[in-house]
């Protein structure tokens, strides 16, 4: 079978490096073109020595028409607001596109403008965009031409709370999501906050209640409420605090909520098992608490459900690799679906431990 | 002025090492005797090479009478349940004692027995014990002969929430404390969970809703409620999840709650400033979010207050060094008060940065 | 094609976890049996949660006859001195075996006894054992039934110096190998030295001039000298100091030597390129200095050659993943050769970066 | 006694932060003025939150005359080549100055120009400059008005080899210094190499044989050779490779050499003890190998001497904190001597462990 040729735009960051790695390992995908503005003209193996000898391409400048001429399908790993036009170009050319930015994730363009300080100049395309979380939107993704791949924090937060929302179990105004991320989540551009001596032996809460991933978490969770699929108005709002933790990769999200009615832990866990039946990349863990060390480099999302009966809280813990299930891996998982390939193709490798 | 001679029992762990370091730096304290069962007979400088040339003592076996004969005042850094009798011996000998274990922290012996699976065989002494958080109990500590020094997590959690409780602002059943600790908080005994390759590139939630520090947090916070000082029955219960983070030292505690009535952020911050006026070791930080890197090795507790007006939560962040303000430093701070020395004597050194 | 069934003995350590991971990814190998004394009866996914859902076996106790009945080929990842008998059993059963211990690496049983304090009770098998470094002994490995897979440090040290020895360029008594290893190299058994707070913000030289990997480095390098293939008496001895570095994986070896005759750097580099022509897993790097971050989790060995013309030294730097090219990956590379599979089958995945 | 007022120029880097911390702790020094170009106008506590509440000054722009008007003595923590003129201004004003840059370390201006690509426009002052390693030049420092404080690597390298050179024991052309540094040694300016995800799980050799600290190591060691004090021509050259290690602080230097005549280890160690008799900050360690974790945040230099009798090498290991004994602490140690204060005043605090 002839391989499908893919183009990757904006690949000199960490998510881009992971796309390059995962495409290189994928049995049915083949790299056509890779772009980066700051590394244009440089060999991939010079920017990412890990790929030396494995990827022979050089980075090019982004020119959508060239990218599209060469590629059967496209991944866009551009910064937020920079994907607006390239997505439109891909759509026009009829090429399947997975956009890793936030530009097409929010259904309501006013919400996008509010959080990203940019008007959404292709708002008419939003109805075609499917939020790229296959565990929630598998069928829609398979039919989509445009997938808006989720942010790293939302991947963990939505997956750990979705079964509770789908059964309308959660008391509104009781949801706290305390998320912790490895520093690669901040990207590859040096800055004081990510300078090794500042970030090491350090633990940095940031953008308390103000992180841009909040609206997509609320959009997706509230859409799961029975009888509420089409509403964009949040029924629940979440307290969300991200923290930078001194590790390279991985997100651990600890979410707290109170239930509308008491429930036994065993019943809650059964409900999660049913909800994620058949989801190749969700692993439910009872005795072993999820931890980034079990999933780093892999596309798995480990979820644990716990109950603090004494104080009346349900606590869920989710771990994902921010660059794989939280970015490049999830994008390929969606692309597999769009291309009618097996959903898990090229993505089943486990974490190297330790 | 003649120095006051102190004995330290159980000093071959990390809190003990810090007691040795801080006593060596203290202008009015002098080490009389130091004990450790597993290192008895070994020079301090062999167990802790950082102290080589600075502390000339060797560890001895714990024999309370010898310890007491030699020392004017005593620090007990023994494991939980192992301080019950030595404290009684110190009390009998009339020597001021600061106990770093949990054995005399909880006012209600039934609560102690429930969480520590051990009957409290000296329950009559509990009325003499003062919870050793000087920011809350300065005067009582100064008059006490027995101080029960707080746990590391409770130091952060209580200090970050105390002003809100003292003004009865918090809605019960809305308190979530998500705490993160460096691995030294787990002590110095090797185990798989703390083995470097397991703990590095790792983030481990543990004892979700079940950590033994919960009852002292609830005891101290509820006691602050106006009109409720004597009650041991928790008015509020807290959801508490500790996490192990790949750093050596430091606790970062992120606490969430909802208020009974809306409040402006500026008013909340003013309330904290008033509450902690004169507290040498509490630093309130508005623009710079507290981070363990600013306080490691020091006795400071940095606190930041934030408001998520959109979702209706108050978020407070506290950072302490688990071994200093969370253990040895706080114990010395209390001892200074008991000995009528300046509260901050020997404790003002800032963190070495980075 | 029917898969080849492999047994793995002693797989509850880190090298064992890597063997399990790499076998799971290998297109032609299939796990038959896996043993561990301390984890016998436990599911692989409970000991290594990274493999949950991917490896369904449970650990068994080692019983060589069962292992051999079930498996077409065997990997032994047992501690040093514990492989002596199992290897003999495999040989008797005629099953190809790759032994990851040191037990069959040294040609001279007296040298083995001196460094491992154990008489070699199967010394007659040593003539059948091939030192499992495919870059040096590819043909012999392909014909062997017993491969003694190299230690992690020797893999780096031998590969970085082999071309110089093969051309007899090195002045004896000038070779210094300063090696640095991630902590996983110390294994998975907790001990104070590897306790996170001790090993973090720490850098530990150990066994200075006394590490057991020294004799195999000297054996292999001296055997490369023209005219000296059969001698076991070292022509050169090396100064070798290993260090523990606060990272999980990876070895960086910095080797220094003086040449018998001056040589231009370009000529030296050309000589390395020629020597490693066709070696799939050796990557020569000129501008980018080898670093564990480029090879972690992969089977590559990156080598850089540098000249300090001013002071008269050649400095070579090699990076390998101690658990892959330094252990499990190399063992599979040798097994591929023994089984007449492509040498790089199942081993080409690059490092996940960062 | 009235405190001595000191000015610090260029204090917004890590060495500057340490100078501020150590001056704050010093019983006889008091901060007069502190300058920084990039942080001028900002409060010290905003740039270094660790010092909030402890240092009330704001950074100013450097104006030598103001600095000198205000201060009794001066520390210059400016970048290399930027101290040339300010030192001259201090000398003219007759104020004692400790310069932490390399500008006055090398006796031979031609060597300076060669390694720093800048002509030394105040070469006539070099004769007045004393190399600020008190263990070698105590008396000269006490009489000096200009002290050139050593680099971090040379502090370790010179101290670990000095006794061997002073007794002319070392074979020339056999000296290898393999040095490892925490990332704070690279300064506080963000760059890709020091970006957390690049520097973590990473180990980077750099400037192999080309680091600017080489000439001062050679200058100082060769000057110790009997009969050779005045010569600037190196009798020995060293192979020197620095490495960046994923820790915040600390240098570990492993040095190898061959002796002119065989010597027993006990004799070598005795020789070191004699040489460093009375040196408050050198700790000789036999059984416990020096490790940065024992000295971080402190002014101690731990040294261990080992012999590889089999292969014929002496291996010495030295550990210093690059920012304290390798920079700010050593500068204050020299200033104490210049000001006729006790050499160790304000500097005896041990490392916080772990």
Automatic annotation (TrEMBL), chains A, B, C, D:
Entry keyword annotation includes Oxidoreductase: yes
EC number: 1.2.1.38
Domain Semialdehyde dehydrogenase NAD-binding: from-to ranges: 5-144
Superkingdom to which the source organism belongs: Bacteria
InterPro entries referenced in this protein's UniProt entry, alphabetically: AGPR, AGPR_dimerisation_dom, AGPR_type-1, NAD(P)-bd_dom_sf, Semialdehyde_DH_NAD-bd
Family, per entry: Belongs to the NAGSA dehydrogenase family. Type 1 subfamily.
Protein name: N-acetyl-gamma-glutamyl-phosphate reductase
Organism: Nitrospira japonica
């Amino acid at each position: 079978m002839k391989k499908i040729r893919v183009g990757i735009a904006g690949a000199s960051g960490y998510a881009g490096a992971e796309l390059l790695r995962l495409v290189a390992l994928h049995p049915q995908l083949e790299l056509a073109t890779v772009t980066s503005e700051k590394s244009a003209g440089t060999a991939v193996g010079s920017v990412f020595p890990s790929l030396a000898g494995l990827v022979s391409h050089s980075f090019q400048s982004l020119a959508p028409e060239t990218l599209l001429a060469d590629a059967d399908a496209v991944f866009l790993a551009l910064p937020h607001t920079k994907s607006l036009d390239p997505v439109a170009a891909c759509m026009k050319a009829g090429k399947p596109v997975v956009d890793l930015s936030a530009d097409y994730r929010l259904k309501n363009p006013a919400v996008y403008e509010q959080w990203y300080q940019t008007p959404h100049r292709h708002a008419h395309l939003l109805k075609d965009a499917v939020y790229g979380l296959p565990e929630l939107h598998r069928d829609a993704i398979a039919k989509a031409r445009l997938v808006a791949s989720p942010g790293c924090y939302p991947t963990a937060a939505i997956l750990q709370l979705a079964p509770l929302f789908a059964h309308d179990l959660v008391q509104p105004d009781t949801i706290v999501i305390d998320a912790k991320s490895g520093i690669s989540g901040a990207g590859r551009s040096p800055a004081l906050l990510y300078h090794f001596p500042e970030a090491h032996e350090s633990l940095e809460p940031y953008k308390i209640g103000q992180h841009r991933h909040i609206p997509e978490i609320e959009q997706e969770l509230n859409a799961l409420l029975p009888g509420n699929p089409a509403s964009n108005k949040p029924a629940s709002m979440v307290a969300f605090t991200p923290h930078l933790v001194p590790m390279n990769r991985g997100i651990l999200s600890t979410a707290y909520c109170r239930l509308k009615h008491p429930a036994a832990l065993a019943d809650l866990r059964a409900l999660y098992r049913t909800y994620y039946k058949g989801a190749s990349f969700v692993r439910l863990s009872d005795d072993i608490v999820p931890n980034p060390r079990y999933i780093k480099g892999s596309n798995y999302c480990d979820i644990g459900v716990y109950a603090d009966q004494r104080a009346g809280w349900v606590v869920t813990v989710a771990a994902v690799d921010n660059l794989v299930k939280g970015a490049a891996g999830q994008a390929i998982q969606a692309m597999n679906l769009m291309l009618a390939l097996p959903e898990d193709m090229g993505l089943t490798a486990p974490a190297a431990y330790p």
